[in-house]
Amino acid sequence: DAGVTQSPTHLIKTRGQQVTLRCSPKSGHDTVSWYQQALGQGPQFIFQYYEEEERQRGNFPDRFSGHQFPNYSSELNVNALLLGDSALYLCASSLRGIEQYFGPGTRLTVT
Amino acid sequence: GEDVEQSLFLSVREGDSSVINCTYTDSSSTYLYWYKQEPGAGLQLLTYIFSNMDMKQDQRLTVLLNKKDKHLSLRIADTQTGDSAIYFCAERGTGFQKLVFGTGTRLLVSP
Questions:
Q1: Which end is more exposed in chain A, N or C (fewer Cβ atoms within 10 Å of the end residue's Cβ)?
Q2: Is pLDDT at B23 greater than 70 in this prediction?
């Protein structure tokens, strides 16, 4: 079992650009959540996808959007990047929500 | 509202027991979790407890929950240098699967 996988591992972007991060859930899982972890902080919930729809959203602006595909994989898109978007972006998957397993994350640096 | 607080730092000697504490505010929390994060890595699910339980033991890990005081603790028996990491407490409310994390406790285990 490959567990939750994320790509890319690291990414460097310039302010104003757009970025797409990808996540493949653990085998058998149908729900994907995205979190942002700033340096020295705990993860903050961005949104959650189930059955290809956004089911719940945290306090993040509309610049953050996502998608879930029929195979349960997911993408996180961030438009008009700001310096403050620099963080570790974590994807978590679950089945029925009790056990959430995290991927290794994508480190995004905005310059 | 939802808020989870943890002490920032704990230092122990190898072989001692470690106790990491957490308080939360959401009285509707259904599950409470402990995750471990090593440098540059994602979050590893260590254990979790359902809110109608007061204790759960899993090998070297013991979780205690005082629902009245909204206090959660993680005890690691026979702490090893490999246990050095940041430990996050998280709570999940009713309904959807959003996790609310604390800021993490850095555990340092010295030989």
A1: N
A2: yes
